[in-house]
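Tutorial, part two.
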Amino acid sequence: MRRHLLVVGAQRCGTTYLHDVLADHPQVAMARPARPEPKVFLRPGPVDPEAYVEEFFGHAGDADVLGEKSTSYLEIPEVPDRVAAGLGSPQVLVQLRDPVARAVSNWSFSRDHGVESRSLGDALRADLGHAQEWDRTASSVSPYAYVGRGRYVEDLARWVGRFDVRVQFLEELLADPEVTASLYRWLGVDDGFRPDPGEGPVNASSSVPDPIDDDLVTELRDHYRESDAALADLLGRELPWAHRSHGAPEEA
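Running the prediction step on this input gives:
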């Protein structure tokens, strides 16, 4: 029996590379087109599962897993209810990364798309102060939630315990092939398969920020301290960036 998979986030955490790792497996069919992201469960009204499969998985053949990547899903409170109503109990995959590196990448992405004109430091400090308004007709989630989007545990709480959720980290996916094998085992597909998704980065931004100043990095690390501790407690493991107490992110 076919199973559904949703890659729900987080934004700018290497999910395009993750999509390719999944799509490369012969037993997994990822929704097409992949860009723009399908965002089916942001549409008004109920989702007909048969129509959903027909619209996005006509290429699936005899694949065992039908996957969709839509990274807005993680942070929109109504989505878990819509997913449960439409698909029942899909597997849910979340990929995270150092939240400071994620914030820098988010700024670069917004800059590339012409919605950000501020310097990196000004933009991050503004989001540290308060949530910023954005054009809700132009995007499903804020392009300016550079800092807020990195408090991962707040969004995960809506998903964990309700679905079969796997949380993994970009840093470990890139460093250790066993993470990919473990992912395939969780999906119930051949874990001996080795993907060839190409060499990263995928969907990289072209806007290169100035080096982030040490004072701001320290302020961000302090800001995330409580959230990171709650995330580590939720997952029952140390976070890959746990020892970067005041250092700059290793990757942006």
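The domain at 3-235 is CATH 3.40.50.300 (Rossmann fold). In part three we will examine how such features are distributed along the chain.
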